[in-house]
Specification:
The complex is a heterodimer of chains A (575) and B (143). Chain A has 575 residues and is an alpha/beta fold. Chain A has 16 helices and 30 strands. A 5-stranded parallel β-sheet of chain A has the order 10-7-6-14-25. In chain A, strands 16-23-17-18-19 form a 5-stranded parallel β-sheet. A 4-stranded parallel β-sheet of chain A has the order 2-1-3-4, with helices on both faces. Chain B is globular and about 35 Å long. The two termini of chain B are 12 Å apart. In chain B, 59% of the residues are buried. The chains are: A alpha/beta (575), B alpha/beta (143).
């Protein structure tokens, strides 16, 4: 590798950095660091002007390393990397230094300290950049077909969308019928249309589409491989089918919490969940004349802190429908807060009030009580706003419970090597920037398996996931990030520690020259570096985060003249 | 060195997905914390080997913070479990070689926990300030 020639571009970000960090002083300082051949400051390095300054700098000063000191790599690294690439520099020779989000913005009252810190951080960046190595991305072929797991309205929408784009789709549903949880739902808010009127035509289209092969009463038994080349085994009543797909969409939905033991559920008749109420209404069975609904049963409580967000509207809808079919019925909704956040939802809520649905706010500290001997007679509730206790006659108690993750999530997580969140829902790669992708390349997520969603949100996510999943199918190849491990086979002792620790099964032991050595399947490696950290022989290198690079960063904060001298004039060499 | 004007240098290993994101969020929310942290971004806290932790101390860090995703919330499913296992052995080891174990801290900080990140830096900086310069702090040794 040639002698490093580093260019450093320090961004003012308007006043965001410039008002708290003395940028010109930092630039002057940086110019004196080893191997830095060019340093400049830009008003906005991410602007057209800043990007062309980077490209020009690479040409003019023959830069072979580029550092931008500005915001955060989490948002802007791709932009600066592509500027380097456009100027003919391998994008892995770019290093990001965060002097805004983690410096100027958090030390606004200490400009001198912020300036010193910015210098330190850039010095650490320079120390690492000197040791950066170019990396090459491998090209992986993608099979032009997809697997969709889950045949609810979300899974069906994703499958149809992919099929309409011309790709072969394998749709796997564990029940004997398509339709998912909506088969048990009576009507949908805010249109009050019957759920089956929505799902049946979609199911029909799916069943008749020549590009979709549907597996009912089936489970995905095994998935091996990686993006472009997943080997899938489906078990249909003991009969196995095997096929190969390029990408996978997970749409396995969620389930309603059954609040056993709460408010007499499971002990008294006529205490039911919203979904059980829907079943009765759908079958035309009688519902009570004095109906009380309690919201947030088992939700937003210490053991399950999240808001399931769709249940308020669902409760309001069922209350609305009861009043619509029997205006003489009394319906109360006891709630803690109300989530009526969507298009037309607030109007729907008003409509329910106008029809006579009564809303009473209770608090977690004083929850409602059920009064009755063997059956519900009254509900005692402390009216949080009026500060009085009320007793409501009640012949049917409906408990509004949250959607909870399906038990299948555990198995799916293990099989597909995708993450779960703290509640057991499937976890997307990034909450804001990659909402329908998993961290694992080529696998996508939509619907309530990720987080409770209503039908229109679920379908939107299905289309988003389908369009993401179609991308690699259409281009026919992918180039995954080159930040992966590699193994020095000469010093690998074949102990297998990395194999047991790798979360993605990317490491395996293979025979080589009479011994066993670890081997990385690059397409499967996600670059966490756990293998490298644990390797007792130091045989595994985590590229772009190599020991040498990180150790150089660790040395850099103590850079001073005396130290440089003691080290023979170099900073950041591993000591 | 006078303890009153001792400004500790703290190395913070932050995983890209949670702790580093939380640090960004603390910035976006303009939360203020002491300027003693020098962050090293890693993709996963599981990348932070015993060797790197010790290297940070050997280089002169007065404190080392390793911050990753909450257990069960790891971008790499179980990388952070390697981290927590590592700490079980690392703390007594530090004590045995004369570095107070309180100079090493492990925190789980989710991507949405900007306030927790800021508070962690505040309290850890105070802890380390109270301990004084690390025995391996180069400036203390006149370098």
């Amino acid at each position: 590798m040639d002698e490093p020639r580093i260019g450093v571009f320090v961004c003012h970000c308007g006043r965001n950095i410039g008002a708290y960090v003395d940028v010109p002083e930092v630039v002057e300082y940086v110019k004196g660091l080893p191997n830095v051949v060019h340093a400049e400051h830009n008003l906005y390095t991410c602007s057209e002007e800043g990007i062309s300054a980077i490209k020009k700098g690479i040409q003019e000063y023959s830069l072979n390393r580029v550092i931008v000191a500005s915001c955060t790599p989490r948002t802007h690294e791709p932009l600066f990397r592509s500027a380097c690439e456009a100027a003919g520099l391998n994008k892995y020779l770019f290093e990001f230094v965060n002097i805004r989000d983690q410096c100027s913005w958090v030390h606004m009252n200490e400009p001198e300290k912020a300036t010193e810190k910015a210098k330190d951080l850039i010095r650490m960046g320079v120390a690492k950049a000197r040791l950066l190595e170019p990396l090459e991305e491998v090209e992986i072929k993608v099979a032009p077909s997809a697997l969709v797991i889950g045949g609810g309205v979300v899974g069906m929408s994703a499958a149809l969308n992919l099929a309409q784009q011309g790709f072969d789709v394998h749709l796997v549903e564990k029940q004997s019928q398509l339709g998912g949880i909506l088969r048990n739902v009576h009507k949908l808010y805010p249109t009050n249309e019957e759920a089956t009127k929505l799902t049946n035509p979609i199911a029909e289209k799916v069943e008749n589409h020549s590009k979709i092969k549907t597996y009912l009463s089936s489970k995905v038994k095994e998935v091996a491989g990686f993006i472009g080349n997943f080997d899938v085994t489906v078990d249909q009543d003991g009969k196995e089918s095997k096929f190969n797909v390029g990408t996978i969409i997970v749409a396995i939905g969620a389930q309603e919490l059954k609040p056993i033991g709460q408010y007499g559920y499971g002990e008294m008749p006529d205490v039911l969940t919203q979904l059980e109420l829907e079943e009765r209404m759908k079958n035309g069975e009688a519902v009570g004349k004095n109906v009380v609904m309690i919201n947030c049963v088992g939700a937003r409580v210490p053991e399950r802190t999240y808001c399931s967000r769709i249940c308020c509207m669902n409760a309001i809808k069922n209350a609305f429908l009861i009043k619509e079919s029997n205006p003489g019925a009394k319906v109360w909704i006891l709630h803690r807060d109300l989530m009526t956040y969507g298009v037309d939802f607030e109007n729907y809520y008003r409509g329910a009030m106008e029809r006579g649905v009564r809303f009473i706010r209770y608090s977690l500290e004083r929850p409602p009580e059920v009064i009755g001997n063997g059956k519900v007679e009254k509900i005692r509730v402390y009216h949080e706003l009026r500060k009085t206790e009320l007793e409501l006659s009640c012949d049917m108690l409906v408990l509004t419970t949250p959607l909870i993750p399906r038990e299948d999530n555990q198995g799916i997580s293990k099989m597909l090597r995708v993450s779960l969140d703290e509640f057991g829902f499937l976890l997307e790669a990034h909450l804001k920037l990659r909402p329908v992708e998993f961290a694992m390349d080529g696998i996508y997520i939509c619907g309530s398996a990720k987080w409770p969603t209503d039908v229109s949100e679920g379908i939107s996510q299905a289309y988003a996931a389908a369009s993401k999943a179609a991308g690699p199918l259409r281009t026919g190849y992918v180039r995954p990030e080159a930040i992966t491990s590699s193994v020095n086979e000469d010093i690998c002792s074949g102990c297998g520690t990395c194999v047991s620790l790798c979360p993605f099964e990317a490491m395996e032991l293979v025979p080589k020259d009479g011994k066993r050595v670890a081997q990385v399947t690059v397409a499967q490696c996600k670059g966490c570096g756990v293998c490298g950290a644990a390797c007792p022989s130091g045989a595994v290198t985590m590229n772009h985060f190599r020991n040498e690079e990180i150790m150089a960063q660790l040395e850099a904060p103590w850079y001073n003249e005396a130290f440089v001298e003691s080290k023979g004039g170099v900073i950041g060499e591993p000591g | 060195m006078n303890r009153d004007d001792f400004e500790p240098v703290i190395i913070g290993f932050c995983c890209n997905w949670c702790a580093y994101a939380a640090a960004d969020l603390a910035g976006t929310s303009r939360m203020q914390y002491p300027a003693n942290l020098r962050t090293v971004r890693v993709m996963c806290s599981g990348r932070v080997s015993d060797m790197l932790i010790f290297k940070a101390f050997a280089a002169g860090a007065d404190g080392v913070l390793v911050a990753g995703c909450h257990p069960g919330d790891c971008h790499y499913m179980k990388g952070n479990l390697s981290t927590s296992r590592r700490f079980v052995a690392m703390k007594p080891f530090l004590g045995a070689v004369g570095i107070q174990p309180e100079r090493l801290r492990l925190e789980w900080i989710g991507a949405s926990e900007g306030p927790k990140f800021a508070e962690t830096v505040r309290s850890f900086t105070e802890t380390v300030r109270g301990l004084g310069p690390s025995p391996l702090n180069r400036r203390r040794n006149g370098l």
